[in-house]
Amino acid sequence: MKMARTLLNVCLVAATIFNAAIEATKTKYLSSECGDEVKVNGDVLIKLNSWFQPNCKVTLVPRSGDRLIARFTYYHFNGFRNIIGLIANECTFESIQLSTSDSHYYFDEDDGFCGAYKPSGLYDLGQKGYFSYNSKNGLTSSMKADLLVTEVFDKRNKTCASGQFDCDKNNYCISDDVTCNGYDNCGNDRDEVKGCGLTTPIIIGIVVGCICFVVLLIVIGVCIAKHR
User: Fold this and answer.
1) What SUPFAM superfamilies does the entry give (predicted)?
2) Which of 77, 87, 195, 212 is spaced 20 to 30 A from 37 at the CA atom?
3) 3-state SS assignment for residue 192
């Protein structure tokens, strides 16, 4: 049984390493960036996950790129509140919003977004964009969302510059540093397929899976032996 526990601990450590590898993308929390300007160098993951999230708006600008694009990698909203909002045909309790500096709103300008399913679009924020959370009654937040924001360079003479990756989409080029990182920065998965092979996160994932499988077999074997 001691060996099983040891292997389980190894499995947990490996899983932690795997998570750290996937989280190589810079992560920031909306609750700690309220009112601030975030310069996006390559990419950044903005997380809305606080139970006590105040109304908040963060400004997003590229460090040296031509524009920013954004997509939601995760979204969850409490079903009960969502049903109430749908009946009232509005975001009764809370909502999120994406907008640009020229006052283009990707969701309803007054209500924002509070749907049941993750927004599936790829949003062009231009040279300056805003991600905001709004609570209309001060209740604790039941919304959770991860927004992946990527710095994009426009193609020059139909090619990407040295150190950049061609997304083969909308003339987008992204930094080589954000390819093969477990996140779809281009919006078409090309940066997670072309030239990636067995990347570090994938290798670690395979190792984690094998270790956990061995641990499971050992635990089952020990349990069977004890009951004989």
Assistant:
1) LDL receptor-like module
2) 77
3) helix
Q: What is the 3-state secondary structure (H, E, C) of 136-164?
A: CCCCCCCEEEEEEEEEEEECECCECCCCE
Three-class secondary structure of residue 67 per DSSP: strand
Torsion of the alpha carbons at 213, 218, 220 and 226, rounded to the nearest 10 = -170
End-to-end CA distance of the chain: 16
> What six digits make up the tokens of 100?
């640009």
Query: Per-residue confidence of the chain (228 residues) as pLDDT tens digits?
Result: 555 555 555 555 555 545 544 545 689 999 899 999 999 999 999 999 877 778 899 999 999 999 999 999 999 987 555 555 555 555 778 899 999 999 999 999 988 998 888 999 899 999 999 999 998 766 567 789 999 999 999 998 889 999 999 999 999 999 999 999 989 999 999 999 987 865 555 555 666 666 666 666 776 766 676 766
Helices (H) and strands (E) in the chain, counts: 3, 11
Q: What is the DSSP letter of 108?
A: B
